[in-house]
Design brief:
The protein has one helix spanning 266-271, and strands spanning 10-13, 20-26, 31-36, 41-45, 52-56, 61-66, 72-76, 79-83, 89-95, 103-110, 116-122, 130-135, 141-148, 151-156, 162-167, 172-179, 184-193, 201-206, 212-216, 221-225, 231-236, 242-248, 254-259, 278-282. By secondary structure, it is mainly beta. It has a single domain (10-282), classed as Neuraminidase. The strands form six sheets. A four-stranded antiparallel sheet has the order 1-24-23-22, with no helix packed on it.
Length: 295
């Protein structure tokens, strides 16, 4: 179930997800967790056997993170929850900081110190009313900044002192200075910007040498960008809506990519029937272990 080291992106799980997202590799379990936002569930994929375990969610799930104490922290539509090792939500630790009728949590991950940063999105897309939040280990939730429609593309440089964040509707990725002691981003500046209709930056990750890997929803590719903003490579895949990449495998040299098939035209799905699947590709560069939530 591990893809060969070549130039192609291979479907390793034909999941037919409506909106696959948030792949996270567990180094201890040697397994990949990921979610389907629209058919809300947390999935566990074992690349050695191809086995999948699914835990349904009561509401749309925007993202999640592994916990240092075991189990998960889940960003559901109605708030942030703690979950057992099987993914079942058991305790709400923060209320949703928005109107759940029009907004939900979206992309997020833990910073190097174990805080969960999670953004929201305006599902109506009629205003820049989404924001980025930080959940501290004591479960207090803080708004960091707003002024966007869809929060996405969150990742950190290897030293943790640069934070990347994408505003999907604005087709812009910004870099921030990041204070590891306080969990505060500052000094925003444009890192990358696009203008094409299919150039919509979605989820992202950073490899061990600091390159930023970002997926393009409706663009059918993942782009590799140097820390200086130079495009190094484009990695196409046979699905028009990749949503987020993540590094996994025993050596963290397998790039996994989740995709979506929701609202795609029938002719496109006929050409790309594995849309909504989990894709993978072996790379020369390695990723880094994903931080766990410290709370």
């Amino acid at each position: 179930m591990t893809p060969a080291a070549d130039s192609t992106m291979t479907c390793v799980l034909d999941a037919r997800a409506a909106l696959g997202e948030c792949p996270v590799w567990s180094t201890s379990e040697r397994a990949l967790y990921w979610i389907d936002i629209r058919a809300p569930a947390l999935h566990r994929f074992d690349p050695q056997t191809g086995a999948t375990r699914t835990t349904s969610m009561p509401h749309a799930i925007g993202c999640f993170a592994l916990r240092k104490r075991g189990g998960f922290v889940l960003a559901l539509r109605d708030g942030i929850w703690l979950a057992e090792a099987d993914g079942k939500p058991v305790r709400k630790v923060a209320e949703a900081p928005y109107d759940p009728a029009t907004h939900r949590f979206n992309d997020g991950r833990c910073d190097p110190r174990g805080r969960l940063l999670v953004g929201s999105m305006n599902e109506k897309r009629d205003g820049a009313t989404a924001a980025l939040y930080r959940l501290d280990p004591d479960f207090t939730l803080h708004e960091l900044f707003g002024g966007m429609t869809i929060s996405n593309g969150l990742a950190w440089s290897p030293d943790g002192r640069t934070m990347y964040h994408a505003d999907t509707q604005a087709r812009t990725v910004r870099a921030f200075d990041y204070d590891l002691e306080t969990g505060t981003p500052s000094n925003p500046r444009e890192f990358a910007r696009w203008s094409g209709e299919t150039e919509r930056p979605d989820g992202a990750c950073v490899d061990s040498v600091g390159n930023y890997w970002v997926s393009f929803y409706r663009g059918g590719k993942v782009m590799q960008i140097s820390p200086h903003g130079q495009v190094l490579a484009e990695h196409p895949l046979p699905a028009m809506c990749p949503t987020m990449p993540a590094f996994g495998g025993d050596d963290l040299r397998t790039l996994y990519v989740t995709t979506a098939r929701q609202e795609r035209p029938p002719d496109e799905l006929a050409r790309m029937p594995q849309s909504g699947g989990l894709f993978a590709k072996r790379l020369a560069v390695a990723g880094r272990p994903e931080p766990h939530f410290a709370g």
